[in-house]
Amino acid sequence: MARSRNIKPGLFTNELIAELPAFDRLLFIGLWCLADREGRLEDRPKRIKMELFPCDDYAVADGLSHLAGAGFISRYQINGSPIIEIDNFQKHQSPHGTEKDSVLPGKDGMLTVNERKANGVVTGKKRMVHVSSGEPNVNPTLANVNPPSNNALIPDSLIPIEHNTLRASDENSSESVDPKSPCEMTLEWQPDARLLAAFAKRMGLAVSLFNHEAIGAFVCHYSASGRFETQQAWVSLLVKWIKRDTATGAAGASIHPFPVRKTTEPDFDDTSWADGLVVKT
């Protein structure tokens, strides 16, 4: 799921919701988790089914039609891209302050640009830009942030790439990333070479220790947390991770054989009792 959302008790007593089948009501709740901070997601029924109902025989396309007919969601297209917007989403949900701006425009074609602090938290001030303007809808200080998984449907987005402002910086660029730029850990994250060399030297570690397997284990551990840190903080955590593994010897250094169980029960396989016996003929 993209994000944790709030469920209010009033949902279960809402007379309009109660008129819908149980699976349609569950779909409505699931859409909150897939939606971005503006309550929008791509209108792709098959993909939504894989995200929310992979093991159920449920027609998501029909459920979306029921929700739209009841006035709970709006379905529209911008530049040929189908979009779902959850009505009154912002009235009932309070997205986390570091959650990224939506890359999906509203029904009027407008994108919301939130002003952010240096740590990526929204300040409460925002402005609107039209999707056709080509103006990126992110705070410039976040330009080097790695692409997060804030919406499970965004990676295959149909929105033109020039409007998907959460893409990673050019891998071939020789410029170092801003060490104070905040980012969410993703499976594609790689440490900045200059930051890594500096931190490794400070901790007395060889850069060669930071191989693909070591970094991969670190990334897999933290990518599931949804945690935001600066680039500098992530590299520091990685170096401490490797330092700890080095101190313990290796990944299997903490594995010990099972201790021999002491018991007073007789050992029927023991033949020592026969030692020294003389057989008379």
What does this structure look like?
The protein has 281 residues and is α+β, with helices and mostly antiparallel strands. It contains eight helices and seven strands. Helix 2 (22-34) packs across helix 4 (60-69) and helix 6 crosses helix 8. It starts with 14 loop residues before the first helix and ends in a 34-residue tail after the last helix.
Q: How would you summarize this macromolecular structure in one to three sentences?
A:
The chain is built from eight helices and seven strands; from the N terminus they run ααβααββαβββααβα.
Characteristic key phrases:
single chain; 281 residues; alpha+beta; Arc Repressor Mutant, subunit A; Helicase, Ruva Protein, domain 3; 2 domains; 3-stranded antiparallel beta sheet; two-stranded antiparallel sheet; 7 strands
What's the CATH C level of the largest domain?
Mainly Alpha
Strand content: 5-15%
Integer average pLDDT: 76
* Largest sheet report: 3 strands, antiparallel
Residue ranges: pLDDT <50 for 5 or more in a row? 138-175, 250-256
Fourth CATH level, the homologous superfamily of the largest domain: Winged helix-like DNA-binding domain superfamily/Winged helix DNA-binding domain
Question: What gross morphology would you assign?
Answer: flat
- What Rg, in angstroms, do the CA atoms define? 28 Å
Secondary structural class: alpha+beta
| Spatial strand sequence of the major β-sheet | 1-3-2
First-last Cα distance: 83 Å
Topology:
Elements: H1 15-18, H2 22-34, E1 40-42, H3 45-52, H4 60-69, E2 73-78, E3 81-86, H5 89-92, E4 110-116, E5 122-130, E6 182-184, H6 193-202, H7 212-223, E7 228-230, H8 231-247
Helix pairs in contact: 2-4, 6-8
